[in-house]
Amino acid sequence: MVAVREIAALRSSLTGEIIEPEDPRYDKARSLFYGGIDKRPAAILRVANAQDAARVIQYARETGVELAVRSGGHSPVGSSLSDGGIVLDLHDMRRVEVDVAKRTAWAETGATAVEFATAAGAHGLGVSFGDTGSVGVGGITLGGGVGYLVRKHGLTIDNVIAAEIVTADGAVRRIDAEHEPDLFWAIRGGGGNFGVATRLHFRLHQVDPFVGGMLMQPASAQFIHDFIAISAAAPEELTTIANVMPAPPMPFVPAEWHNKLVAMSFVCYAGGGDAAERAIAPLRKLATPIVDMVKLMPYAQIYPPEDDSYHPIGTGRNMLVDAIDKRSAESMIEYLSSSPATFSVAQLRVMRGAVARVPDDATAYAHRRRFAMINIGNLVQSVEELTAIRPWVDSFEKAIQRGPEAAYVNFLMDEGPERVRRAYPAGTYERLMKVKRQYDPTNLFRLNQNIPPSA
Q1: Domain 210-411 is of which CATH architecture?
Q2: Distance in angstroms (rounded) separating the CA atoms of residues 107 and 97
Q3: CA distances from 190 to 95, 144, 424, 428, 433 (A)
Q4: Distance between CA 249 and CA 194 in Å, rounded?
Q5: Per-residue confidence in pLDDT tens, the chain, 455 aa
Q6: What is the pTM of this model?
Q7: Separation CA 355–CA 50 (nearest Å)
Q8: SS3 assignment, position 138
Q9: Level-2 CATH architecture, domain 4-89
Q10: Which residues does residue 206 pair with via DSSP β-bridges, in sequence order?
Q11: Do domains 96-206 and 210-411 have the same CATH topology?
Q12: CATH classification of 96-206 is 3.30.465.10, yes or no?
């Protein structure tokens, strides 16, 4: 506890602020997006700049206190917090600076996806982030970034052109393809294993006009199969995210559909006019829409509103597949109709497009040629229920896996080192370990989907 008592000495050297257990803001500051995670850090250090981050990192290295790093607090396994250690919290670093003429933007990594989308969208520009507005720019980007425009503009990392990062030695580094290229390669898909990214420089794209929104239709095996086939054959301007699930009992859903299996799909077209209508029309024709909210809108409005008090307890499984065939679709209906969880969903994202045009070795995210990403998600009432539903999740995964097993690191749960290895082909994983040995040989940054310095 000596190191914890010495936290007070940091106050005079930080521009940011320190939140300790006796602070009335402490419980809110340690809450995460997901529920069922009750960690109590000794202190939460809200840094104001890269120099603050360097001082916190130096302190953790010198004292040996456990260090967690938080951007938006969306880690599904609670890696954004330490139980008894300290949290380097990027919450107050939210500035987004858009250069309209160059179509680029520098963003501090505590900014959220919707804050970035709003700032860039004011100029008709944007980049493909995830599908949750409150996710932090730092966390989603370092893992890869799969969002509403992925088929047209690629992963988030495909649009990163430079970064400011503080490594385990406390050095503030400006990196890009020419300056420390191995580190720049590793942070684009390798997660938070190599340092704390405090600012990221993005290449922006024209995102207005944009047609998008939620389309809800009855779900069946044939519908799922055909929806995926249409999405895959569509122009890459069209990205879809189909959530096969029981219809929620919400006001916008007709009561007769509550709790019946539906496909609640987010349909996004990078463009407008007749081209958008032609691309989306085949999806609408598959089944009479229960709800149709697809329309011309500013891109930033695609992010659904969120309830800050909602902290779901859940578990899931992420997988990358080479096909979603008719038997896969039938299995989805079978498993979702007999789920032991309070709520279950199969989320289907057709990939390729711009993602597949990037060479496999260009970034640490290397599953460029996979056809689709599937997430099996489950919500429960208590943490104790999580263990009971894992056999069902395992069986569901086996029923729909097509091709070599692989995963996306940002969607991994607490599944052990072998599952982390699945997020990277063997050669990529070995290269990541080499970069880890160079920049973080003692594994200071270990509260994450960890890549150790050695096997």
Answers
A1: 3-Layer(aba) Sandwich (3.40)
A2: 6
A3: 24, 8, 9, 10, 10
A4: 43
A5: 445 567 878 888 999 999 999 999 999 999 999 999 999 999 999 999 999 999 999 999 999 999 999 999 999 999 999 999 999 999 999 999 999 999 999 999 999 999 999 999 999 999 998 899 999 999 999 999 999 999 999 999 999 999 999 999 999 999 999 999 999 999 999 999 999 999 999 999 999 999 999 999 999 999 999 999 999 999 999 999 999 999 999 999 999 999 999 999 999 999 999 999 999 999 999 999 999 999 999 999 999 889 999 999 999 999 999 999 999 999 999 999 999 999 999 999 999 999 999 999 999 999 999 999 999 999 999 999 999 999 999 999 999 999 999 999 999 999 999 999 999 999 999 999 999 999 999 999 999 999 999 87
A6: 0.96
A7: 31
A8: helix
A9: 2-Layer Sandwich (3.30)
A10: 125
A11: no
A12: yes
For residue 209, is the peptide bond before it cis, meaning its omega torsion is within 30 degrees of 0? yes
The string of DSSP letters for 252-264 reads TS-GGGTTSEEEE
Structural domain spans, the chain? 4-89, 96-206, 210-411
Q: Any idea of the CA torsion for 215, 155, 79, 445, to the nearest 10 degrees?
A: 180
Q: What is the DSSP string of 401-437?
A: --SS----GGG--S--HHHHHHTS-HHHHHHHHHHHH
SS3 string, 77-100, reads CCCCCCCCCEEEECCCCCCEEEEC
Residue 132 gets the label, from left (phi > 0), alpha (psi -120 to 50) or beta, of beta
**Helices (runs of H) and strands (runs of E) counted in the chain:** 13, 19
Q: CB count, 10 Å around CB of 165?
A: 26
